[in-house]
Amino acid sequence: MGDNPASRVYVNNKKKACEECGFKSEEFALPEETTEEELLSLIDTLNKRDDIDGILCQLPLPCHINEEKVLLAIDYSKDVDAFHPVNVGKIMIGNFDFLPCTPAGVMELIKLTGIEVSGKECVVIGRSNIVGKPQAMLLLHANGTVTVCHSRTKDLASVTKRADILIAAVGKANFVTADMVKTGAVVIDVGMNRLDGKLCGDVKFDEVSSVASAITPVPGGVGPMTIAMLMKNTLKACKLHNNLN
Ligand code: GUN
User: Fold this and answer.
1) What is the dotted CATH code of the domain comprising 101-222?
2) pTM of this structure
3) What's the CATH number for 1-78?
4) Which residue among 35, 164, 171, 181 is the one 20 to 30 A from 64 at the CA level?
5) Which tens digit of pLDDT belongs to each residue from 168-227?
6) How far apart, in Å, do the first and last CA atoms of the chain sit?
7) 79 Cβ closer than 6 Å to some ligand 1 atom
8) Are 32 and 2 in contact (CB under 8 A)?
9) For a substitution probing ligand 1, which of 9, 130, 192, 232 has the most ligand atoms within 8 Å of its CB?
10) How far is the centre of ligand 1, averaged over its atoms, from the C-alpha of 44 (Å)?
């Protein structure tokens, strides 16, 4: 909804990925002034359509729309973002169909480093519903010892310096500096910020890369993984709806 430039880029990337995977996708680009009732009515139509397996409502929504109400309206068996409270609850228990895309992508990246999460000190900076909180849960499922930091955390650097695996999901450009990172840590940068018109992460890449054993760049790190996980969820939804498992 509306004309958020970042959302435009994300939606275009998601549509392109669908095309590459051979998935049919439909975009409903609603104008800013669309009412909540109209949006909920569209979701209801898509929920009922048998030829639709996955539904995603790109966030953020304009202020006059109740985001919680919208996410609750999406049929949870089509909720490829895993934002519906039923799916959030299933993730908490560890018995889920869909994983939230960004945290799941981060777990895949960690797996690729060959480093075992089990028993490791994992520190997540940020406690959003989309990344920080579910990320903590996935690391916990992988038997990590997890700490979640946020804006009220005291002496943040002393906590982040303990991390074997450090996930930055703050939303502030160059927030994580080398003095906050333990030598040899795995550093995953979920940030997507604009600084002087240039896309950059939450981590000061140039200096942290000389301390970390592995680090993700922005762009080209977590972003493509998020989309890959969205495709994975969509395939899963299709299989569930068509009893193909
Ligand atoms: N806005 C920012 N990240 C996301 C995401 O992963 N899914 C949706 N739907 N909106 C977002």
Assistant:
1) 3.40.50.720
2) 0.96
3) 3.40.50.10860
4) 171
5) 999 999 999 999 999 999 999 999 999 998 999 999 999 999 999 999 999 999 999 999
6) 34
7) no
8) yes
9) 130
10) 20
